[in-house]
Predict the 3D structure of the following.
Amino acid sequence: MNTFFNEYFDRVTFFTVLGLVGIGLLSVYSATFDAYEGRDFYRQLLWAGIGFTLMMTMMLLPLRWMQRSALPLFFASLSLLILVLLVGKRVYGSQSWLGVAGLGIQPSEFVKITTMLAVASYLSRSDVKATDLKDLTKASILVALPIILIMLQPDFGTSLTFLAMFIPVLYWAGASKFLIIIIIAPAFVAAASIMGTTPFLIVLLLLGGALWTMRNENRFVAALVFGANVVIGFLVQIIYDKLPLYQQKRIATFLDPNNDPLGAGYNVIQAKVAIGSGGMFGKGFMRGTQTQLSFIPKQWTDFIFCVPAEEFGFVGGVVVLGLFAILLYRGIHLASIAKNKFSSLVAIAIVSLFAFHIFVNIGMSVGLMPVIGIPLPFLSYGGSSLVSYMMMAGLLMNVYANRKEY
Amino acid sequence: MNDEFGSQERRRVLKIIIAVGFILLVGRLFQLQYIYGDLYGKEAEQNSIRNVPKVPIRGYMYDRKGTLLVDNRPSYTVMVTPIDFNAENLPLLSSILGMQQSDIVAKIKQAQRYNPFIPTRIKRDISFAELSMLEEHRDKLYGVEIQMEAKRYYPTAVRGSHMLGYAREISDAMLEKNKEYYQPGDLVGSAGLEAKYEEQLRGVKGWEFISQNAKGQIIGTFDNGKHDIPPQDGFDLQLAIDADVQALAESLLSDKRGAVVAIDPRNGGIIAMVSKPDYDLSHFSGVTPPDVWRALNADESKPLFNRATLTRYPPGSTFKMILALTALEKGIIDEHWTVTCHGGFRYGNKMFKCEHVHGAVNVVDAIHRSCNIFFYQLMLKVGLDEWSAMGQQFGFGKPTKIDIMEENAGLLPTREYYDRVHGKGKWTPGYLISLAIGQGEVGVSPLQMANYAAILANKGKHYQPHIVNAVYDKRTKKLEKIVAEQHSLSLSDHTWDLVREGMRRAVMAPGGTGTAARIPGIEVAGKTGTAQNPHGKDHSWFIGFAPFDEPKIAICVLIENVGYGGSFAAPVAGLCMEQYLYGEIIRYGAKKKNADDAIAAKE
């Protein structure tokens, strides 16, 4: 028995995830404790139970089967996204929910899993090369399909997570660094150009430096890329200046919520106050004034990190971050030891997705990132996201169990 | 496998990126929580902006002449802030307010779950004695405060219980459905006009932003009140009701069970709507004592039941005009067609009786003297289909869509109805004979009957009955008139004239059954009804309108279990119409003679 566990059961991932889910449940309990008498908490507890079962199921799935059925599953899941556009429910302005047996399901959360499996399955084929532009284009089309469907809902934040998952996977699969830089540079350049001259110059300098180090790439193409990014920067600036004032204000507030303290920035300011006032050791469970006095709207979904940070202070925040760090490094380790390309790519996709969610969500709560409504894995209130993240954790455990298979 | 896949270098790059991310986050946490921790801690203590709802003044209601019927008066409410309240003071508070300790605890506990820092209502509308007792113990009763709120006040003699309705503390079920506007303890219109016009009457809540510390203690207004949103007072209602007629009708029925509905046939406005017995609305304006509720619900005379709109009784002879109109309009009979009344009528082996032996009667006589035999025979000639088609045109068997919610559609039997109840082909024309005189299955409400009287008064042109004439929009400062839907029931003038003449004679001519409804100096038309019922004495009905040539009021009076329509309902109708047309009761005074001279001169 013991040898079985040592051989097949990834205790590190398992206990890390259990810890995070536990902290998440306590946080949801604290943030939603009011006249509704913990209804939300019990619902989340139910979802955690479902998630746990599915996590164990994912761990046990046969590797070959997953690899073979990844594409059919992917297309089947896309049809759910189309269904959601046709008959879905609207919540907070985007049409991303399906009602199933009285519970709201967000198919986009599960499409993340089928997409990562499909991409990994495609890139792990022996006839596909991550250095071949044609193959890369095909992989990109795979990812573009769900992104387009989710943009239609419209759910900008969730669409971004697909890109955040895809680019590191390409990198891991062997795409050239030069290519990766060409893909991601314009986004950074555009954002920096709106933020001001200094950020713009810094980003350009970094880009120039990065291109400079890639000595074996075509110098002419590198210069062209650099030039194009400079032009993009100026174009964005020109377009931004031409926008009506209110739209400029919206973009500026998005990039820096402090610009609108009573509107869009209200959450961020209250979140910062909540976290800051937690101090080193926090105010104690169920005793966070910001949390208990409902100062942070929608706290149990996107701003859940404030709860451990306010009620357990810096110590609580670092414990959460520490658990996440263990999970991410464990994922990279699993990707490295897996003998199978498919498994390895799946692990990297999961790590990238988690990393993006963690950095954007917590970054938003502490005021380092723009407000993008994406949940914090394992902690945020919400059934579909909790279940899908636990399924991903199950996939990581699956990678461990099958690590020796070719 | 190409050698770049998952290479050592790529692994390192990813690890570094993740490390940078975590270092940034931990650094930021350290900055916020350790370096600025005290600063944010103070801010959390201070920042706390509390949104305090400001309840607007509920709209007033005026009658057609501008008399204020529904007013607001200040009342005092005891509030308790759960977090501040000391349980040791529970016996003291309970003895001052005369409430069970367990009731107080239940309220505080419920509020505690909602938000322990926000004061919650414990008792509305406390008495002056309670108020002074509380003031006396103020220093002891920490966390107990008194708030001034408005409660409904009814300054005139008008009770209007069922019509005006009341606002009560919102129920949990309703709160769940309307969470975006209401909060626990809010008042919400729950019956009558208060319910129907809730959105107009309630106004729009305002918000005051108050800075509070983390313990919920108020520091002061936030940003000098610059962001406060003032409440918008509720809109006023201008009713078609005539307060004097309403009060008179209420007093006339004070010891009876019944209803009065009067309509202005020129626009459909309800002049009076009375249902008796009723209840005192002022019991509902603050808190309703549970024993009052229990008593009202247990009362076998059903004071909460709106007899004006919910009753479903047979209308008796008042319904005869439906049959007369059908027969005349369809050309089945003319004014020369007569029936000889011997005081009885045999159909099959059943005997149908008449009140008198009327001899030979035509259609006008039959209405004038309310001859049953004429209508029994006529019903057999006309048949069910034409009769019920005419009844439907007068709005029977369906709601009038008046602007209060509680209304009964009544029942107008049709061929489909009989087929359904008795089976196809299993009923005979004999079933119809009772319908001819408004007995049997047919069921109507006094409101439907008043509407019917208004249609007769106006020769077919009529309006949807409505209590509210106009809403005064306080934002635009405009009086928004409510335009009543206009309908037309086109029958030939000849038909109308014959039937209306019968109704005129029923009141004005000797031998009429409704002579008790006469008014000095004005010609009245009407019809009495005496409806049999299995529970005691007959129900007394009267419908009518006046003045005959240019009707300004149409009325229906129903008094339960008293006897003849002509003896009980008709005089009430006469007095109400007199009050409305003259603005006072003149029949006992000097004006009566002048009015009688005028009518004599006219004749």
Remarks:
- Residues 360 and 369 of chain A are 6 Å apart (CA to CA).
- Residues 2-401 of chain A form one domain.
- The first strand of chain A starts at residue 89 and ends at 91.
